Each structure stands twice: as structure tokens, then as C-alpha cells.
Amino acid sequence: MEKLDERLQCNICFQVVEDPVRHLACQKVFCAQCLNILLCQSATSNCPNCRSQIFQEDLALDSNIETLLLQTFIKCTCGETVCYNIYNGHIDKCEAYNQSFRFMALKPKEKVVNRWTFNCPGCDMKNLERKALVEHFSKSHRGFSGVCPVCASMPWGDSTYVSSNLSGHLKTRHNMDYDTLTVIFTQDYSLTDEEILKKVLEDSMKTC
């Protein structure tokens, strides 16, 4: 069994990284899902590698790693050589691998919705971060009617509700990253931004 390339390995689950997010402060790469789960479950938003506090501006999707995942191959215990981008799926079904050994740290099985990037409902643009999505709509889709991909990714969102002016909706409702609000203030994605604000105000009154 070949050793995984550390550049392409998540520093939380230690499997091949999926939807790679780099923490610019320490340059370590994590699966977006693994990092979301860790930050949501933790009382503090600290990096699992360097332990410094994580801020939204210090996280970035790593397109270079995504390219390497498509171009790099590894030999499995079963003898088959597979591309890194399908390796995790391969070992889940590989009898030879499962009969030999497993990593001590396995990828969490909990399914977490991707709230890092969004696909544009107005064209074929994909993997847009929240800010890029807002800017893209302002330039290319003014007056467009459609379902807000940010709202649809939230537990309280309605994936069938059509906004008559999606560009205006995005500017008004999504002028900051929702991950920042939930991680810093509540750890709860089920709350709307109004409920988060109410909770923050209530907590601030208790400390006065």
C-alpha cells in the first residue's frame, strides 16, 4: 500500500482531501466537510493544526490541490492504481483494503451540506464563494428570478421559493458569510440570521 501524498491529505480525517480548504495562517489543508463539522462541534473556532483562531478571511478553497487530485495516482492494496480524486470512494468498497487495515482516523460519516461554495442558478458558473456569487449576480444577472442557493443550503431554507429579484436578495440577505455568524455566535445552522441577532443581543444583556 503506497503512502498518501501529505499534500493531498486532510489534516483532520487523514484521508484524501475532498473540497480542499487551506488555512492561510498555517498553510494546512482540510476537507471542507471535516472543517465544518469540527468548527460546529467545537466551543472555539481554532485551527486543529496550529490552534490559532480561524477567521473567514484566512480560509480559501485551494484550486491547485483540486488539480493535483485529478492528475495524481496511487496504488491500492488490491493492486489497482486509482486517481486521488476517487480514492476515498474506492477504498470504501475495496475488499482487500478493508480486510487489511483502516486508518485510525476515519472520515466522519455525518453528511454535511456544502455551505462554502454555490452554483449560479442563472448560468453554468460553479463553486462560487458567497462574496463571488453576490458580485457575479450584480454584474451578470440583474433582475433575474430564481431560487437563492445560499438560503436553499440552510436547514430553514426553502429550496422551492423563487425570489423575483435574486440579485437584490443576495445583496440584502447575504452580505456576510453565514459560517462566520454560526461559528462565532451560536454553532447552530438551524437559526436564521434574525434569530442569531436576537440571541447575540440577549447574551450581551446578560453580561452587562
Question: Can you describe this structure?
Answer:
The protein has a three-stranded antiparallel sheet. The chain is globular. The chain folds into two domains: 95 residues, 2-Layer Sandwich (Herpes Virus-1), CATH 3.30.40; 59 residues, no CATH class. About 3% of the residues have low confidence. A hairpin with a 5-residue loop joins strand 4 and strand 5. It contains nine helices and seven strands, in the order ββαβαββααββααααα. 38% of the residues lie in helices and 10% in strands. The protein is α+β, with helices and mostly antiparallel strands.
Gist?
This protein has 208 residues and is an alpha+beta fold.
Q: What do we call the CATH homologous superfamily of the largest domain?
A: Zinc/RING finger domain, C3HC4 (zinc finger)
Order of helices and strands: EEHEHEEHHEEHHHHH
- The amount of helix comes to 25-40%
Beta-strand residue percentage: 5-15%
Strand line-up in the sheet with most strands: 2-1-3
Radius of gyration: 20 Å
Q: CATH architecture of the largest domain, please?
A: 2-Layer Sandwich
Give the C-level CATH assignment of the largest domain: Alpha Beta
Tally of separate helices: 9
Number of domains: 2
Q: What is the structural class?
A: alpha+beta
- Distance from N terminus to C terminus (CA atoms, Å) equals 59 Å
- Report the mean per-residue pLDDT as an integer: 80
- Main beta sheet: 3 strands, antiparallel
**Total number of beta strands:** 7
Oligomer state of the chains in this structure: single chain
Low-confidence stretches: 181-187
**CATH topology descriptor of the largest domain:** Herpes Virus-1
Overall 3D shape: globular
